[in-house]
Amino acid sequence: MSFYSQYELVRLICHGGAKTFEAKQLASNRVVFLHLFDEDPAVRDSLLEKVSFLVTNPPASGLLPILDVVRSSESPYVVTEVLDPFTNLEDWVEAQYREIDQADRSRWREQIDSRLSTGDEEGALDVARDALAEHPEDNDLRQAEQALDRLCRGRKLCAEGSEEEGLALLSQAHRIDEANQHVRRALTACLLDAAEKVIDSHWGAADQHVQEALRLDPSHERAQALLERIGHKREEFICWCLTQAHRLQGQGDRAGAIAVVEQGLASYSTDQRLLDLKASLRKKPEPSRGRPSSKIPGKVDSLRRRVEELKDKLEPKLSQLAAYLRDRLAPACSPASAGASGLAPAGAGGHPHHPHRDGCRAGDLGSGFPAAARGRGCSADLSRDRPSRPSRSNHHH
Question: Coil, strand, or helix at residue 12?
Answer without folding.
Answer: strand
